[in-house]
Design a protein that fits this description.
Shape: globular
Number of helices: 7
CATH architecture: Roll
Number of strands: 22
CATH class: Alpha Beta
Distance between the termini: 42 Å
Number of domains: 1
CATH topology: C8orf32 fold
Strand order of the largest sheet: 1-21-4-8-6
Helix content: 10-25%
Structural class: alpha+beta
Length: 366
Amino acid sequence: MNIPSLLILLSCFLAMGCTERLGASGFSDEEEKILSELPKVPVGLNSGYAIERRPSEKVDCKLSYQVSAPSLVADEWIFYAAHAPSLPSQEVSHVKSNPHGQLAFSSSVLQRKLLLIRVPGEGGAQHAVDLRVFTGAQLFSRKLIQGKSQEKAPTLSEPEKRVALRPSEMFDYPAPPFVVWLKEKGYVRAKAEGEIGFARRVFQSLAGSFSYEYSEQMERQATRVCRLGKSDCGGLSVLFVAIMRSQGIPARCLSGRWAQSAEPGESLHGIAYYQSHVKAEFFAQGVGWVPVDLSLAVSYDLSSERLKFFGDDPGDFLTLHVDPTLSLDTHHFGVQKIDWLQGAAFWVKGGGKLEGLKTKENWEVR
């Protein structure tokens, strides 16, 4: 295929705050209306609980991403990679890249940190680019316990709370079919039910009734996942978060990778696997962010309670960005949306042919 200009977007499909910056654009009138009508959870319904947080391990992570097209003549490559944020689960010391990248933000209400790497199509870069992203972080384990924490429980500002309650294309909890499903399943918070009690009840029910399924092309909207009764880690996390938000409980997806190196030749359901994963957390007043991993519960917890992965995070995971759907300024092709950014997304302007296009990825942790 001969083309005078070229747009390519390749990103790790599951490639798939503390320090998140809120956007200045605000919410639409429809979103404002939805947020204003959400139920309010009274304070004081989570007494007797606390989060026990301890350092787990320090990690230095390297994402390698190589792309080549021998017949391509690039003018400029535009790469984006997630800039890992500091969160209750991690304190990030540095994020840098080679070639050098600059700090950027996604064009959305929650302006997530990104690395923007612009590579001129000079010399060998006309045909290929070898990208490295380095992240250093202290990880923390978090466990929901009965008792009092030695640390003061965190609070959310009103803007932070609104961001963690907002509806979206993925978190489409206002959709009539989803509202009907919530009522049919009993996923409506009782008057005296705190965030922890409600989340536990929902988690147990979902873990016992849903199944895990992964394929290269999936739709992960909450309305679709609830109808199918199955999804992967991203879809199951989206569903849990959507249920929480529908009841006025702040919640968010954590998209990243396990803090261990990819194994050569490892695959998941026949698709190359580089430790990508998505989990979630919800905010309980007087306690803080409570971690949950629904896909692991669905796949590995066969106990009667189904609570092994509720409120228990061993601190072996690096979050690269919060929530799906990032809007990225490509500089040549307008703003483009992608769902997950655990790897690298790129666009290239130039000419030539696409025949022979190859990408290679790796994830190393020490």
